[in-house]
Amino acid sequence: RAKERGGNQIAFYTSDLSQRARMQLDIDAGLRRALQQGEFVIHYQPKADLHSGCITGAEGLLRWMRPGQGMMPPVEFIPLAEKNGLIIPIGAWVVDEACRQIRAWQDAGLGWMNIAVNVSARQFHDEELERVVAAALQRHGVPARLLTLELTESMLIERPDETIERLQRLKHIGLQLSLDDFGTGYSSLAYLSRFPLDQIKIDRSFVVDMVTNETSATIANSVVDLAHRMRLKVVAEGVETREQLDYLCGNGCDEVQGFYFSRPVPAEEFERMLREGKRLSAPADSVSVQRS
Ligand code: C2E
Ligand code: MG
Ligand code: MG
Ligand code: MG
């Protein structure tokens, strides 16, 4: 086809392709080096309990600190690492580092924190996942209940029977399983009840809609109720305003995570929050006001 459009077109197409190939190669090499040279870090975004206001743990979010080029956010390199398979060793590093950090905070007298890590599709389908996770927990002497794996709906619904077995094996280790970005997919909570999950995380877009749109608010309320009846904990993510927080208190949501309470921060800063006993202010008031 390109031929019919003449020589220039072909040349353009070819150089565009090779440029993209070169970029991919650069990133591949960069990611490989990043692992070897320790350029990855995890930032921690605290989660707060809506009843006590206390920090219950954090989500670990990966950052690539490129020398001389600043920080690259995960949305820019995770898809590339998924494509070239490097997500497998990178994901294993994240699990190990999270376990090391849980142990370090406990040893520092800050108590046991629960850390949630994100698992990509390729990693989830990798045969080695259970072994990698179990080995990391053992290496650092961390009880399995302190590690949460965040999974997404698309990973679960592809081959449901196989997935249920895999989830059961992960539950058997003692891990917590969380469904990330709930409300962005198409499955109902009733359908998702087939999977042995411990919690759902209501996606930021849903949280935003909830306070502005009555239909979304009604859906959000019934999601929280149904989740509780299914014995799932409900965490809201991307909570940015007091208004959203108050609404979530009122509809019985269990935990919140978002810029309103804290951005994702380096480990030392999270540690400082723990030492200072950072809490959400007066959540109990809004609970009684909204519930009546
Ligand atoms: P996610 O798991 O849904 O993580 C939540 C994202 O929302 C994070 O972006 C977080 O910084 C951001 N966020 C938190 N609170 C707020 C808020 O109040 N407002 C707004 N606007 N955003 C908020 P981040 O760190 O850039 O991560 C993006 C995505 O990258 C994550 O989405 C997750 O899917 C993926 N990711 C991060 N770390 C890893 C990792 O170690 N492995 C894998 N496979 N994926 C990861
Ligand atoms: Mg997540
Ligand atoms: Mg999420
Ligand atoms: Mg999200």
UniProtKB/TrEMBL annotation:
Give residue ranges for domain EAL: 24-278
Coiled-coil regions listed: none
Protein name, entry field: Diguanylate cyclase
Keywords, comma-separated and alphabetical: Phosphoprotein
Q: Which domain of life is it from?
A: Bacteria
Biological processes per GO annotation: phosphorelay signal transduction system
Organism lineage reads as: Bacteria, Pseudomonadati, Pseudomonadota, Betaproteobacteria, Burkholderiales
Keyword Phosphoprotein attributed: yes
